[in-house]
Each structure stands twice: as structure tokens, then as C-alpha cells.
From TrEMBL:
<keyword id="KW-0961">Cell wall biogenesis/degradation</keyword>
<keyword id="KW-0573">Peptidoglycan synthesis</keyword>
<keyword id="KW-0132">Cell division</keyword>
<protein>
    <recommendedName>
        <fullName>UDP-N-acetylmuramoylalanine--D-glutamate ligase</fullName>
        <ecNumber>6.3.2.9</ecNumber>
    </recommendedName>
</protein>
<dbReference type="Pfam" id="PF02875">
    <property type="entry name" value="Mur_ligase_C"/>
</dbReference>
<keyword id="KW-0067">ATP-binding</keyword>
<comment type="function">
    <text>Cell wall formation. Catalyzes the addition of glutamate to the nucleotide precursor UDP-N-acetylmuramoyl-L-alanine (UMA).</text>
</comment>
<dbReference type="InterPro" id="IPR036615">
    <property type="entry name" value="Mur_ligase_C_dom_sf"/>
</dbReference>
<dbReference type="Pfam" id="PF08245">
    <property type="entry name" value="Mur_ligase_M"/>
</dbReference>
<dbReference type="InterPro" id="IPR013221">
    <property type="entry name" value="Mur_ligase_cen"/>
</dbReference>
<keyword id="KW-0133">Cell shape</keyword>
<keyword id="KW-0547">Nucleotide-binding</keyword>
<feature type="domain" description="Mur ligase C-terminal">
    <location>
        <begin position="329"/>
        <end position="442"/>
    </location>
</feature>
<keyword id="KW-0436">Ligase</keyword>
<comment type="similarity">
    <text>Belongs to the MurCDEF family.</text>
</comment>
<dbReference type="InterPro" id="IPR005762">
    <property type="entry name" value="MurD"/>
</dbReference>
<feature type="binding site">
    <location>
        <begin position="129"/>
        <end position="135"/>
    </location>
    <ligand>
        <name>ATP</name>
    </ligand>
</feature>
Amino acid sequence: MNTNNTTQNPNNSAKSGLTGPGRVVILGAGESGVGAAMLAQQKGFDVFVSDFGVITDKYKSILEKLAIPFESEKHTEDNILNATEIIKSPGIPSTAPIIKKLIDKGITVISEIEFAKRYTKAKTVCITGSNGKSTTSLLTYHILKNAGINVGLAGNIGQSFAAQVAKEDYDWYVLEISSFMLDDMFEFKADISVLLNITPDHLDRYDYKLENYAASKMRIIQNQTENDVFIYCADDEESLKALENIKPLAKTYPFSIVKTVDQGAYLENNTIHILTEPNNVLTMSISDLALQGKHNIYNSMASGIVAKVLELRNETIRESMGNFKNIEHRLEHVAKISGIDFINDSKATNVNSTWYALESMTSDVVLIMGGVDKGNDYNMLKDLVKSKVKAIVCLGRDNKRIHDAFEDDVEIIVNTFSADEAAQIAFHLAKRGDAVLLSPACASFDLFKNYEDRGNQFKAAVREL
């Protein structure tokens, strides 16, 4: 990648705001797609929405109310291949037949984030990483909002960026950005970009090559200039490897828990130090952070650097980092029953996320895990499982790989096929002072609609105990 970090659209040059009559076709009618449709209609485009799956009643009603034509459970090529530009859902791979046909015709395919940014002068804090990006995005938003900044939250979290651009007038946005979104972003530029980490995830979309996935994550700094900011983890091996071949133009601020840095953030004597200029250091004991665990020290450091770059008051930053409440389904405390803590970490859909969850546990754990295995390598969990996990409750249709991975490390491994059954068995296996942790390391689609459904069913089951 060259030093200006600009990535060209391989099928066409991304347009800097289409003018005059144009036909925008949106593929995918979820939160991002319907938001993009709202904005495109507002800007005077001929809009059509097509979803190969079933469009939910919530989004159907929005499209109907706005009189935006749409189709569900099909892609009618005659209505798609005549587009001036395509806005694609992040969930649709570039290998999908309809996308291949569009690229062959030279029709530009972009993300909702790319499209929406054309129509706002708001500045952006863009946060990506394999793990922790939702928590860090929410914490950053929390700090900025508490400081009185007129800020919105969007991207891979909350309400669509495009819908907010259509309806709101924010000065700043905190955007959680996935690799799938980055793949379809070309002219977009982050004012402040944050890269938390790069660990194996979604490799099926990247020819099973970590370097391809890493290259996708590094697009977070594309188009940045010396007037922009790039924040990254100096302890993350894959991030450092990717940066060997890239010279960011932006001002860089690393964060680390193993070494000191001149500018950025570091940990010393259980105190985090955050500084963006030599004579203005924010210090805070890690015991005062709302988010506990090593991974959350990293997340808090990243958010703290953003706040310091924006010259927010140290007192405001400390207060916000101390009273923040985490995202639902991410290490969410559900209940304490008979002295046993029940924790919902259903959002942990990969091995790294489960590693982070186990690393933060301070008691013996009954671990509920399993689901759709994405080719997981469980070796990285073995030491933590040996030291902290007293039993594993499998929650999934096919649990063979979990049994194979941990049968020598844990005495009890039980199969279950519903959230109710998993919660009940885990309750019986735990004793006072233990934690029951749902942290699946797998996708949820074998037994549940999504990770939210899995987490909600688990919480309901716990409350029935």
C-alpha cells in the first residue's frame, strides 16, 4: 500500500456524490440498507431495494411508508443491473453471483458508510478491530456525549449512519467499522481512526489468509492526511506486522500495557497514563475503570486517547470511564443466584472473544460454549480452560470439536441443545462463588436467530432458575 493509503475501487472509481438523475439500488434491507434508501431518496435518487432474504416487518413498513419500491426473497437482475451505483449490505460477499455481474458491468459497488459520508460535514471517529470494537465505540461515544459534544453513534452498531445523516445534524460520529464495511469503502476518510487488534476472524471471506483480512482492517487509515489521527495497539503482533509495509500519514498514538510510550497510552503500576502532549497527562487506576480485565484496559486506553486528542477535560474522561455500562451480550452480568454469578457474553462469536472473557474472570467458571464452528482453533484457550474452567456445557448441534479440544483439560463436558437446558445444567454444576459464563466462541445460527437471540434466551432461562 502506498504512503497516502488510498485504495481505488477495483470496479470503478467511487463517485464523489452523484448529481442529477441517478438510479441507486440497495442490496440488503436491514438497518444499513433501509437507512441508505432513506438518504438516497432524500437526495433525489431513483431508489430500489432488493433483498435475497426475507425483509422483516419493521423494515418493510419503513419502505412502504416512504413509498420506496422493494423486493424480498429474490434479486431481479433487470431491476438491479441498470443501477448507476449499488449500495451493498456488508453481509453480502463480493463472490455473490449478483455482485460479480455488477462488477463485470463496471457498476460501482459501495458501502452504506461510504455513501452516507458524502452528505455530511460531520467529523468521524472510526473504530475497528477483531475484538472490542463495540465496547470501545460505546465507551468513546459515552465519553464524548458526557463532555457535551454533539455526537452520534453508528456503523456496525445502533441506528444506520445513513439514516442519521438524513435526519440528524451531528458534529461528530463514532462509527464502529467492520472489515466487511471497509472492503466497500474507497473515498471515505476517518478523522480519527482506531485499530484495536487483528486476530483470525471471518477468514472464509478472505481466502482463509490472515494477511488478506489484515489488509482489509488496515483500510481504516486509507486517505488519512497529516491532519488526521491514527490510534493503534503497540502490543498487537498482527497490527505491527501490517504496519511494517505501511507508512501512515496521520499523527499516530500507540497504546500498550507492556511498555511506556512518549505519546499515546501506557500502563505502569496498575495506573494508565494517557498523554497526547507532554505536559497534560491523564492518570487513572485500573481499579477505577468501569470495564475490568486486560482487554478492557486496552479498550479504555483507546477511548481515552480519542478524548485527549479532542482536548476534553481529564475530570470528564475519568468520570465517564468510571461510570460506563457495557454493551448488552458482552460480559453482561445477568443475575446472582445462590451465590453464583451468571454472565452473558453471547456476542463472543470467535475464540479470541472467549479468551478475553475467560481472562477477565476472577473465580472458577462453568463455561457454556458452542454453536456453528467457523474453523476454530481452540488451542489458545487451553491454558485458561485448565486454570479457570471446572466444567464445559456445550450449547450446539455438533459439539465434537469442543470435546476433542478439551477432553484432557476438563473433567466434565456436557451436551445441551437449548438455552434452558444449558442454564439449568450449568447451575447444578456450579457452586457458591463460581461464575456461569456464556461465551460461545461460535456463531449462533444452528439453534438461534443470532447472538442477540441466544443471549436473550439465556437471560430468560437464568431468570427462571
